[in-house]
Amino acid sequence: MTMPNFTYIRPKSLKETFQHLSAGNARIHAGGTDLLGCLRDGVFTTEKVVSITRIDELKRVERLKDGSFRIGALTTITELANHPLIKERYPALAQAALEVASPQLRNQGTVGGNLCQKPRCWYYRGEFNCTRKGGARCFAILGENQYHCVLGGRGCYIVHPSDLAPVLMAYGASIEITGAGGTKKIPIDKLLVLPEQAITRETALAPDEVLTAVLLPPMAQGSRSSYRKVRARGSWDFALAGVALALRFYEGKVTSAKIVLSGAAPIPWRCPDSEKIITGQSLNDEIIARAAAAAMREARPMQYNEYKIELFKGLITEELAAYK
Amino acid sequence: MEEDQKENNGQRRKGISRRGFIQLVGAGAIATTLGDVSKSSPVEAAEAAEKGEMVHVSLQVNGRRHRFKVESRWTLLDVLREKLGLTGPKLGCGRGECGACTVLIDGQPRYACLTLALEAEGKAILTVEGLLRDDELGPVQKAFWDNDAMQCGYCTPGQIMAAEGMLRVNPNPSLDEIRKGMSGNLCRCGSYAHIFKAVEQAAKLKQTV
Ligand SMILES: Cc1cc2nc3c(=O)[nH]c(=O)nc-3n(C[C@H](O)[C@H](O)[C@H](O)COP(=O)(O)OP(=O)(O)OC[C@H]3O[C@@H](n4cnc5c(N)ncnc54)[C@H](O)[C@@H]3O)c2cc1C
Ligand code: FES
Ligand code: FES
Fold it and tell me: Does domain B132-209 correspond to CATH entry 1.10.150.120?
């Protein structure tokens, strides 16, 4: 399919960007790796493409006075993976960045674009007028659903495609959003929305708002973290199942825990019950097995994705065992 | 149109020896150039294009600056092939999945099929044609040739550029690093074993020349 026509504009400032976005029917272009694919495949249409690639203030990674980090939205995924301080302090994030797509896509794709990318459900990407496109049916329910969600689906059964989002959620990151009215900060849990909240959108961003930065809180003493992704092949691929862990230990006991799954649900999926089970404990096989089972207690598989339940249990078990 | 293009390439390849094909993928471009980059002044990048409007773009490709008109929706791959006659970069999937269109942009491997021509303005673009040293193959091209690292050759220019980009960052990759570094390039003919050997040799060759 050829690329449809669009008006293109590349403003130098955020102020100008908001003007173009608020005129309506416009899409932001960062690295373009997801946007251009969607336009070419007719997943959505747009009158105008507003490229933010000239706005240099979005390209910085900064360490703030309180020890937190501010990652500009246009930081590429390669830059994130290679940043010495990110590697040292937020190893799971650097690890996840290296697991994203292919070298070429990491060189071009940005952190902001990764968080705002469209889902990969083949019905949504194909010529199906599904619920996410405003249609009446989710074709995955009776169709080929081996890569679809086992948790959090309602009316639409996508999984969130990002490898960065689950890790950012485990680290308790916030998102800086800027619009004509000013800048606000929200937890990343509030950025990504479930189908039951808004079935045709993946984020809480208004059409004239720009995700300007990701904010990482300082890492506390005794923190450890990791990200593990399972995919169907060694070459580039989206997660079948993944788990981001951010645990804090004091004298051998877990004092706080975040467990977030990728490939499980339409948003990165927190496992609060599992987190409670391991908090206050020193990790042993029995505790770990209980935590893994709890993570999947609410899971509702479809015809072809039941394998994910055992896969997640095994993955969580192996990953937690590495912290023993 | 895209289908036609593939078919034409297929026909052209028939009856050409492998050696001839290498020359074909490595052939220099014939296009209107504005001369060496060093001699021309930088041109301010286009900031806007109306739907369907043709606007000027100035691209620095293989060390020379070219100026021509494009539509906003044209990709870098479209203009390299259609405007500059550089047929090294290939259209495979057009959606970032195969790597046949890989070129270096400011030294980094990227997909030309997912890069708008207007977004490439002001950046240094290198295609497989730009790796030739006069009439000789560059080290990575030579390593692919020596190791028979292709069958049909459709993916080869992209593979070579991915290898070139990786070796610039990591001149001594392990086999595992080579596999990961080349993972954005698929080969329908399954020449991977030879491709990985070629990249190992290319790393050595690059250090001696
Ligand atoms: C073949 C392939 C494999 C992939 N594999 C993986 C994978 O394994 N893991 C993974 O995590 N990702 C994967 N991806 C997705 C890839 O990481 C994203 O395409 C990329 O991160 C998007 O970044 P971008 O800057 O190119 O975004 P763009 O394409 O420019 O934008 C993507 C979307 O976000 C919006 N947007 C972009 N920036 C902003 C902003 N600052 N504020 C508000 N909205 C914005 C755009 O309007 C658009 O809708 C894959 C993609 C492809 C094509
Ligand atoms: S043609 Fe660009 S990645 Fe396949
Ligand atoms: S040699 Fe035929 S696709 Fe790679």
Answer: yes
